[in-house]
Amino acid sequence: MRIEQAFVAGAGLMGHGIAQVLAAAGRRVDLYEPDRGRASAGRERIAANLERAVAKGRLDAAARTAILDRIAATDRLAAAAEADLVVEAVFEDEALKRALWADLDAVAPGRAIFTTNTSSISIDRLAAALAPARRPAFCGMHFFSPVPVMPLVELIRGSATDDATADAVRALAADLGKQVIVSADRPGFIVNRILMPLLAEAMRALEEGVATAEDIDAGARVGLNHPMGPLGLADFIGLDVVLGIMRVLHADLGDERFRPPRVLEELVAAGKLGQKTGAGFFAYPRS
Predict the structure, then answer these.
(1) Are residues 24 and 142 in the same domain?
(2) Helix/strand/coil for 31
(3) Of 88, 122, 154, 250, which is the active-site residue?
């Protein structure tokens, strides 16, 4: 199946990046938020990304215009009626995702492939919001941030996902310039199953006074050759997002390695969510 028209639900950090790479690969995209202002803000972020690429000589002005022209901001869920592909990229909340999928199931055409950008929630639990006949066309397609830069996609098959859906998602990811890794439908899939215990242990080391945040991150960067330290990476991801993933993993696996550390809970409660709020484990200048 050739995917020409996509509907991306969620215009935040992940959703606007997914819309951008789809449009850059020649697809038409409806970028959806129930609030039109948020949808338009997502499209404006794409415009700013493309403008920076032009300024750096990575993209010419004509290509920038063509990409942006393929993206329409919308507050109409009914726009999904034209979609070959629906991508859900809303906040990592199972009830929110399930409610949205139930609504999309009633709108999208039977031919549409349904994919979720969830980073930790069971594909089968989300698929349960769909009519049984729709579930073979549903799978996880987990991108990494920033989507236009990071070359990886996790493909997660649910128990009902059919080969045609998996093949179509593989082909699309290749067209987007992404490498695909395949995970079973297990909590955290591959990357977050590995990453979250690392982030949590770095946070616990900070809580226990083992070292400063700066030295913990320097140890990972210099001693382990990681491109970012774990605390800085958590700030980059968003501490609210990290907390949500850890809660899912801890609830589903019952393993203390995934229990959210106290310092993470406290920072999120204080509204210090990392780079996007200007403060988390580190402080960030606001532009």
Answers:
(1) yes
(2) strand
(3) 154
